[in-house]
Fold:
Amino acid sequence: MYYDMIAKIIVERTGCDISAVKPESKFSELGIDSLDMVELATELEDQTGIEIDLDQKLETVEELDKFIQSKQG
Structure:
């Protein structure tokens, strides 16, 4: 549900090709480090209005997508 939004932000931040971003892609493989994750979460919060707690260990695009969906209520 939020996959396209997440993928778009990753592409904007890293400059990688959109085809490289898959649900099973690990953030580390896409060049996203811990600081990038904070900025990614902040941007997603702004766009969705859903608070994203980074204490949750999220390693893949799909995990982040499912996490946001679970917070949607």
